[in-house]
Amino acid sequence: MPPLSLPSLLIIRYTIAEALPLPARSALNIVQAALKVHRKVAEQLIHDGAVRCRGKMVSQTHLRLKVGDEVEIDYAPQPAKLPRAKAKMQGRFEVVHDDEQIIVVNKPAGLLTVPTPKREPNTLQSQIRKWLDRNQPGATATCVHRLDRGVSGLLVFAKSYAVADQLRSQFAARKPKRRYAAIVHGQVAAEQGTFKTYLATDDALNRYSVQDPAAGELAITHYKVKEQWADATLVQVQLETGRRNQIRVHFAEVGHPIIGDPRYRPELAEHPLWPLKRIALHAETLGLVHPDSGEELQFVAPWPQEFRDFRRRVRKK
Length: 317
Fold this sequence. Notes:
- This protein is α+β, with helices and mostly antiparallel strands.
- Among the domains are: 10-75, Roll (Structural Genomics Hypothetical 15.5 Kd Protein In mrcA-pckA Intergenic Region, Chain A), CATH 3.10.290.10; 178-283 and 306-315, Pseudouridine synthase, CATH 3.30.2350.
- It is 21% helix and 30% strand.
- It has helices spanning 27-35, 39-47, 124-135, 161-172, 246-253, 266-269, 305-315, and strands at residues 10-15, 51-53, 56-57, 70-75, 94-98, 102-107, 142-143, 152-158, 177-185, 192-201, 207-210, 217-228, 232-239, 281-289, 296-300.
- The strands form 2 sheets. Strands 5, 6, 7, 8, 9, 10, 11, 12, 13, 14 and 15 form an 11-stranded mixed beta sheet that branches. The protein has a 4-stranded antiparallel beta sheet with strand order 1-4-2-3.
- A hairpin with a 2-residue loop joins strand 2 and strand 3 (56-57).
- The chain is elongated.
């Protein structure tokens, strides 16, 4: 089965080139016209902080825009068949590093990285932008890479599109060093190993490995066993490539799904000591080259409390 074209974050720039009647110049109508989406989708993008004009976040749907204004919209189209997520406020992010070019944060599990047209009331990107608007007026935050909603850990955001392009080039060249902590089902036999497959996508957006390079994206995952228990294993994971759901798919396909994963081998991913609606996967280190100074930076995010609690309890079994 050939892979589907996956939704990705698009930066839409729309310039108001002609005088329009007053109602048509509202931010809501401009976003709706630019994206050709439903009114409620346009409203949610504005509420999520995904729309900016003249370098500032647009927070009011009725804001009147002028001829010549350029509107920037961060837009990640999603298939209509996906279930609508429940509106629920999520945890706050932690700022790990902040300078004129980049901001590195520790994302809590349960929080989307970027806005989507689903009716999500809160995303990491919108939280960061609101924080910057309060603390650094005029600064923005552009997504460079993502973590799945149920995953916690380190992410870098760029404060300009030029910096975003530079950082994306680093990721495309596999330069950033990304290490994860994962708790997987069962006992992993090999102390270390590498998964190298090609990931394709089915109609339900589930990912799976294929042998044909033309039918999928190259995905390489390295791992080391750090601690083993009766029915679970703690592994340290190093990404060489960064495909969507890569770590989750690789371990699930060999019978060791990540604990708490609701999508890949969920019948094995349940654990009595992990009654949480999150995945036991945490992006604990991130290394990259600073886009301005060229300095090699290394960031660390300590384990979430639920990881430490699980290890303490499972050792007592």
